[in-house]
C-alpha cells in the first residue's frame, strides 16, 4: 500500500513538472539580457519587459483586444443571463436541444468555427472586420456566461422568488431585486472567465482579423515569426500573472467546484 502511494505521488509530481515546467522555463528566459531567447539566461535584465511598451503594434492590438473582449462580454451577458435563467427556472419542450445549441461553440473545434464564420460572416455577408470580430468573440463567450450563471442559479432557492411574486411584486421587479442580487458573484465570475477566453483566443481571431486590425495574441504570433528575442516570453509572464489574479478572484467569489456541477 505504501509503495502504491509512493508511486502515485511520483506520477503526480511528473504531471506537475510536465505542466509547470514550460511556464518556469519561459519565466526565466524572459530575463535574458541578450537579443536571443535562451535558457538558462546568461544574466538578469528587465529590458524586454520595458521593450513591450515601446512596440506600437502591441499597444494597438492590446487596446483592440480589451475593447472587443469588454463589448463582446456585455453582449454575451445580455443574451446569456436571460437564457441561463430560463434554462434553470422553467421546464419546456426542446430545453435540452436549446441548451446544446448554446454550449456548442465550446464543443466545436475552434478552427472549424473560425473558418465557418470567415466564410459566412465576412465573405458572404461582408460584415466589417470589427463587427465580425465582435460577433465571433460574443459567440465563444456565450457558453461560459450561460454555464457559470446556470451553476449559480442551481444553488438559488426559487421559493424566495415565488414568495416575492405572491406578495405582489412583478416578475421583472422580482428578478432585479431578489434573483439578481443572489447570483451576483456568479455573474462576476462568468464575466471574468468569458473575458479571459476572449482575450486569449487565437483560433477564432486568426480568421476574423484583417489588414490593420489584430488582437493581442495574433500580434504575438506575428511578432515571433520575424523576431526571436525574449519579448514574447516577457509578455507571456505578464499574461500568466494577469490570469492568475483573475482566477484567484473567481475562486474567492465562487470556488472552482461550481464549474464541475451539471
Automatic annotation (TrEMBL):
<dbReference type="Pfam" id="PF00528">
    <property type="entry name" value="BPD_transp_1"/>
</dbReference>
<feature type="transmembrane region" description="Helical">
    <location>
        <begin position="62"/>
        <end position="88"/>
    </location>
</feature>
<keyword id="KW-1133">Transmembrane helix</keyword>
<keyword id="KW-0472">Membrane</keyword>
<feature type="transmembrane region" description="Helical">
    <location>
        <begin position="129"/>
        <end position="154"/>
    </location>
</feature>
<dbReference type="InterPro" id="IPR000515">
    <property type="entry name" value="MetI-like"/>
</dbReference>
<feature type="transmembrane region" description="Helical">
    <location>
        <begin position="100"/>
        <end position="123"/>
    </location>
</feature>
<protein>
    <submittedName>
        <fullName>ABC transporter permease</fullName>
    </submittedName>
</protein>
<feature type="domain" description="ABC transmembrane type-1">
    <location>
        <begin position="62"/>
        <end position="250"/>
    </location>
</feature>
<dbReference type="GO" id="GO:0005886">
    <property type="term" value="C:plasma membrane"/>
</dbReference>
<keyword id="KW-0812">Transmembrane</keyword>
<comment type="similarity">
    <text>Belongs to the binding-protein-dependent transport system permease family.</text>
</comment>
<keyword id="KW-0997">Cell inner membrane</keyword>
<keyword id="KW-0813">Transport</keyword>
<keyword id="KW-1003">Cell membrane</keyword>
<dbReference type="InterPro" id="IPR035906">
    <property type="entry name" value="MetI-like_sf"/>
</dbReference>
<feature type="transmembrane region" description="Helical">
    <location>
        <begin position="175"/>
        <end position="196"/>
    </location>
</feature>
<feature type="transmembrane region" description="Helical">
    <location>
        <begin position="231"/>
        <end position="250"/>
    </location>
</feature>
<dbReference type="GO" id="GO:0055085">
    <property type="term" value="P:transmembrane transport"/>
</dbReference>
<feature type="transmembrane region" description="Helical">
    <location>
        <begin position="7"/>
        <end position="31"/>
    </location>
</feature>
